[in-house]
């Protein structure tokens, strides 16, 4: 998944994102201000330098190694893909649209073969033509062990993908399941029906890479641009990136990226408080600055809210992301559904939301799927706890489960101060369950230990905090990794926290994956979410909300429901 406020690591517990925070019908800018204005003169114009102030370096700036939903933010300035996200505010931004291709793909009858035709006039930064063979090669190199890190779907979906080791070891013609009958046509043969292949084609692995320019692990130092900007400097493994215009990029072939600034200066490795201070002061180059990975915290947001000027420079966004309690039913007493239900009733979502920073930064959740149409959100609350928990109902269920005198359990959480799976949320859960007669002992783990522990079926606790973000705005990459029994990993990172392996659930996932009508698929995902929710394998807690400052000279702020954060491809700075 992509966690919008972290670089590119996959987290279930958790993303982007990472990068992070999420869900709901996204809005652009503070609730009542026009975020597109960004100053008195709201008309965006070309020119100037956009500065990006980030905490995390843009490491692994190679399209094969990036795990970025929709092509990422800064990466999508350099890397174009077959399809991309629609660069519009809110719900419209959750749609997939053509990028290098003329359409979002043409499936055969059962969605096991997808065909794309490239637009005419596509060129790299050196003026050479982009061909379908370049896209095939770009995908194939992502299978090389030394370029690992990208999304795993291609290995699972492409015929022959599971055994392919990339072009450096395979000196032959590469993957037979990717055909390039001519320079503008590319055909993909899949192991099984995948109606959401157009979403996958937004990942940076679909970026064209000219074979002659491939330098293996050193390619990231100067990847060949197919987008509106090219890399002219990459310092300290992505700590500072300087991008300038790719004069061979043509807006006629790219309806999505506006490319207003002449130059993009990405500066990373900064403390989050420093970033927000600089954006707040908005002095010198910082007046034309944004951040793609740093949110306002509760204390900072309180200060901003009281300042009319600063409040007008806050972008608000929602991303497909859910924070939740996870149960391992193989660990007692969580093997008893009534115990899991009791905890679901006992949770005080008001205190959890407050622990996450308050209602401006978190929205209470009773469904696993985020509350956005593209995910197929279907409202349900199987264990209604109200705003502050239903201790009486929880006690009743505990009595039925054989725990009339209450019970003691251990809640595992991260020690990270992330307002998601950290001590603040854990303490809120602990306090609420105490009212229901459940004594909760807290076990905090450092970040890496935490991830390793909860993602290993051998060490997975019975009761822990988790979170999950979407690889694209659909129920598929939300429900399948968490509830498809065939995705349980015995030796490696496992995300099916409830270790559910229900034949009927697996079959419904397969049936929905066959649908190329994404609206119809969304309704089915929502219905499946409601059905799975009855088993109380998780307790949804909240969907985070992004609040991010931008400089006073920044204009044309666009925040879609796909990413939940400001889209740098749309920004103007003068």
Automatic annotation (TrEMBL):
Alphabetically ordered keywords of this record: Signal
PROSITE patterns linked: PROKAR_LIPOPROTEIN (PS51257)
Residue intervals passing through the bilayer: none
Domain of life: Bacteria
Entry keyword annotation includes Zinc-finger: no
Signal peptide range in chain numbering: 1-26
Domain Solute-binding protein family: 95-486
InterPro entries in the cross-refs: Peptide/Ni-bd, SBP_5, SBP_5_dom
Disordered as annotated region, ranges: 28-60
Protein name: ABC transporter substrate-binding protein
Species per Swiss-Prot/TrEMBL record: Streptomyces tendae
